[in-house]
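Write out this protein's structure.
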Amino acid sequence: MKLSDIKNGITAEWKEKGYEMPAFDIDAVRAKTYEEPTWVHFGAGNIFRAFPAAVLQETLDSGRYDRGVIVAEGFDYEIIDKAYRPYDNLSLLVVLQSDGSIRKKVVASVTESLKADMAFAEDWSRLAAIFANPSLQMISFTITEKGYAVSPADLEKGLQPGLIMGKVTALLLERFKAGAYPLTVQSMDNCSHNGDKVKQAVVAYAKQWAEQGLVPEEFLAYVQDGAKISYPWSMIDKITPRPDAKVQEMLKADGFEDTETIITERRTYTAPFVNAEETEYLVIEDQYTNGRPPLELGGVLYTDQETVDKVERMKVCTCLNPLHTAMSIYGCLLGYDLISAEMKDDDIRGLITKIGYIEAMPVVVDPGVLKPADFIAAVLERRLPNPFMPDAPQRIATDTSQKLPIRFGETIKGYKKQGLNLDELVLIPLVLAGYSRYLKGIDDEGNAFEPSPDPLLEELQPIVAGLEIKEGAQDFSCLEKLYSRKDIFGVDLYEIGLGKRIEGMAAELYSGIGAVRKTLHKYVENR
C-alpha cells in the first residue's frame, strides 16, 4: 500500500484496512484546478496537510466543489522534494483520537506543489501565471508568526526579495499588472489579529518599492484597497505533532509502506503521513473580494471580525491557554514530562477544571459561534488526556512571563471591570504563587530542574534567590518585586488586593519537600 500507486486505481485492500479514500475524481479536479485555480496556500508543513487541505478534502468529497488547492513552500524546499512530489502530492492524515484509536484518511486535495522562490524558474513562472489568472480567489498561509517578519535588508533587495512576504508581494504585483484583479490574502496562523500582520508586511514592501520607483503608486493603492485586496482575521486551533513512532508501527502493521520520517536540513520533521489530534477549529472573517471555496462544507466557521476576535480571546484568556500554563507550572514542579500523564493526576485535573468552569467562566467572552463550556469540555475530556499527544509541560512553560498577562491578567481585569468579588479567585492566585516557586528551579522532591527558556528568566530568578525550600518562617516580602509588575501579570497584584494573598500561598509552596503537592491538594479540594 503506497500513496503513489493510488493513481493506478484504488485497490480493495485500502478500504478493507479502514482507510478513507477520496470520493471524487482526482484527475478531473487536478485538470480543472490547473486551468482555473482558486486557492494557493503558502506553507507546506504538517498543519496545512492535517487541517486546511483536509477541510478541502471534505468539501470535495461532498460533491459540491470541484477545485483543489495548490501548495507553495517559501522556506524549506526539501519538503516539496521529499514529502510531496515523490507521493504524487497525496498524503495520509492519521487522526489521533482520545480513546487511543486512529482514523486514516488519504488526502488528495493538493493538486500541485511548488517552490516559492525565483531561483526555481519553472515553479516561479507557474506561480506568476496563477496569480495573473482572474479565477484565483484566495491565498493563505501557515508559516508561523515569524514568517510575517519584514527586515530592512530584504526591503532593500527591491523586486528580488528573499523573505516569504516579499515574494508574495512580488506575486501580487503580477496580479496587479495582469488587471488589478481582486484577491483575498488569508492568514491561517495561530497569532492574534493575523490578517493585520499580513497586511502590514505586504504594504511595507509595496511602499518601499513605490518609493524606490520600482512600482507605480497605483500598486501601493491596490494592496491597500480593501475592495480589491482583503486581509481577513482568523482563529485556528489544532495540534499536529511530529511523525509519531507509535503511529508508524500501526501503519506498517496495515501494510502501508510510506512511513519514513523525513528530517530536512532546516530541521523540519515531516513524513508522507501527518498525525494530528481529532479536535480542530478554524474561524474566519468572511471578507472575500473575489469569492472563496465553500470551506464551510468541511467545518470552517465564517463570521465577522468582531466574532473572530471574541473566539481568540475565549481561547487565549479562558478556555485553553490558561489551563495549559497552569499545567506547565505545576507539571514541572511535580516532575511530569507529559501533559496527558498530568490529566491522570486528580489535583492537576481539578486545578484546571475549576479554573475554567468556576473562576474564568464568569468573565468569559462568549463569541456566540462556539460555546465556551463546550470548548472547555473538549479540552478537558478529549484534547489534554489524548495519549497520542506527546506535549510536555516543559515546552508549554517556555516564555511564561510573556503569557501570564493575557492568560490570567485579563481574567483578573475582567473581575475588576464587572465589579465581581476578587475573593472568589482562589486557584488563579495559586497558579501565580506557583510561578514564584517554579522560578526557584527546584521540584517538589527537592531536585533541581532547568526552567524553560524565557526572556525575563535572568531578571526574575534573582528575586527568589534568597528563598529556601524549608519549613519555618522566612521573609517573603521580596516577592513584591515580582507580583507588582504589570508587564508580567497585567495588573499590580498588590494594588488590587491579591498580592499579600499570593505571597501567603507562595509561603506554603516553599515550606519544605512535598509542600507543592500538599498545598495544591488543599486549595483544589476546598474550592
